[in-house]
Design a protein that fits this description.
Layout: E1 2-6, H1 11-23, E2 28-33, E3 53-57, H2 63-73, E4 77-80, H3 87-92, H4 95-115, E5 119-125, H5 152-171, E6 175-180, E7 183-184, H6 193-202, E8 207-210, E9 216-218, E10 220-221, H7 222-235, E11 240-244, E12 249-251, H8 252-263, E13 270-273, H9 288-294, H10 302-315, H11 317-324, H12 328-336
Parallel strand pairs: 1-2, 1-4, 2-3, 4-5, 5-6, 6-11, 7-10, 8-13
Antiparallel strand pairs: 9-12
The structure holds nicotinamide-adenine-dinucleotide (NAD) and 2'deoxy-thymidine-5'-diphospho-alpha-D-glucose (DAU).
The site of nicotinamide-adenine-dinucleotide has 30 residues, from helix 1, helix 4 and strand 5.
């Protein structure tokens, strides 16, 4: 089995590659990644010498490069993680989100049609459903929840999802889509809430919390997401959408306090800053379909996962110190410098 994994130098894609190489010793994994600010080759260092792994630096929007790769590798499957993924950046500059997340997806699917494929899998997000009110804890996102996006990021992901379903209906392409809740774990880029809080706390820097910190996210350990995708691409039904989430809803402020406690840092570091524009209140996934059809359940409890994650950042300082000392510094100053 030859699998092209796009965006494999990023957070979830890299964890997926590690999972697949460990579980399927007879599979070949080809990682295609543009190495944007969020892609990091050092993340893949531990698999670079694996004969079943190869890395290709390319842009999913570059039709010529993508077709050449398909021609050469004849993939059986494509799992598309490649995307611009940070909501705040999408609010600042939507256009690259539309280009990568929508056009890039269409180029990959065109290549699948041209060269033939067993399965194209689109890694999507629960953000395509918009948000839920805080005072209705009985409501959850199901696969039937209407798409109702809030940010340029989520709109671009929803557009891509619609395109994927259109390629299935119109051209008969063998597709599947997964919509997962917030992930956390090793190799998470420190612009996102959990790694940013860990990295700032370790430097005794302010811990920025948007608005009142009451927004709720449904956190899932990254390995559980990877296992769910593994199940879907092998056993999931073609043309179907599967929600992935572990019923682990938590307020942002509580997450930040837990990290302070694990690191022995004072909650005085917590700094309330201006809210995100259009900030979604609550995400909550109903994972009944993937559980009933594929037997998936999350395995890592939040208390264990967050401890493992904090330990990983303590034991892998060079990985994130190289990031926060580079161009990320300019991003941080721009995003948080005058936030007040
Ligand atoms: P990430 O930002 O950490 O990584 C994205 C990767 O894609 C990087 O390696 C980057 O270099 C690569 N990339 C970006 N543009 C590219 C292009 N044009 N061509 C080739 N490669 C390109 O993202 P992540 O958090 O690992 O998310 C991966 C996928 O999962 C995304 O599609 C995201 O929408 C989705 N998702 C993320 C979460 C989450 O909590 N992080 C939850 C649900 C779904
Ligand atoms: O739900 C899945 C989505 O989760 C993915 O599709 C996205 O790619 C991923 O980035 C993530 O989106 P969020 O916007 O939920 O994640 P983020 O870590 O940016 O923010 C989590 C919450 O914390 C959100 O309510 C905003 C808040 N926040 C974030 C940052 C970076 C803060 O309060 N302070 C911060 O500094």
């Amino acid at each position: 089995m030859n699998i092209i994994v796009t965006g494999g130098a990023g957070f979830i894609g890299s964890n997926f590659i590690f999972h697949m190489l460990a579980k399927y010793p007879d599979y070949r994994i080809i990682c295609l990644d543009k190495l944007t600010y969020a892609g990091n080759l050092s993340t893949l260092e531990c698999v670079m010498d694996n004969p079943n792994f190869s890395f290709v630096k390319a842009d999913i929007c570059d039709r010529e490069a993508v077709y050449a790769l398909f021609e050469r590798e004849k993939p059986d499957m494509v799992v598309n993680f490649a995307a611009e993924s940070h909501v705040d950046r999408s609010i600042d500059n939507p256009s690259i989100f539309l280009h990568t997340n929508i056009i890039g997806t269409s180029v990959l699917m065109d290549a699948c049609l041209k060269y033939g494929i067993e399965r194209y899998h689109q890694v999507s997000t629960d953000e395509v459903y918009g948000d839920l009110p805080l005072d209705r804890p009985d409501l959850f996102f199901t696969e039937e929840t209407p798409l109702h996006t809030s940010s340029p990021y989520s709109s671009s992901k929803a557009s891509a999802d619609l395109l994927v379903l259109a390629y299935h209906r119109t051209y008969g392409l063998n597709v599947s889509i997964s919509r997962c809740s917030n992930n956390y774990g090793p190799y998470h880029f420190p612009e996102k809430l959990i790694p940013l809080t860990i990295v700032n706390a370790l430097a005794n820097k302010a811990l920025p919390v948007y608005g009142k910190g009451e927004n709720v996210r449904d956190w899932l350990y990254v390995e559980d997401h990877c296992k769910a995708i593994d199940l879907i691409i092998h056993k999931g039904r073609v043309g179907e959408v599967y929600n992935i989430g572990g019923h682990n809803e938590m307020k942002n402020i509580d997450i930040v306090k837990i990290i302070c406690r694990l690191l022995g840092k004072s909650e005085d570091l917590i700094t309330y800053v201006a809210d995100r524009k259009g900030h979604d209140m609550r995400y909550a996934i109903d994972p009944a379909k993937i559980h009933a059809e594929l037997g998936w359940l999350p395995e890592t409890k939040f208390a264990d996962g967050i401890r493992k994650t904090v330990d990983w950042y303590l034991n892998n300082r060079k990985w994130w110190e190289d990031i926060v000392s580079g161009e990320y510094r300019d991003y941080y100053d721009k995003m948080y410098g005058n936030r007040g």
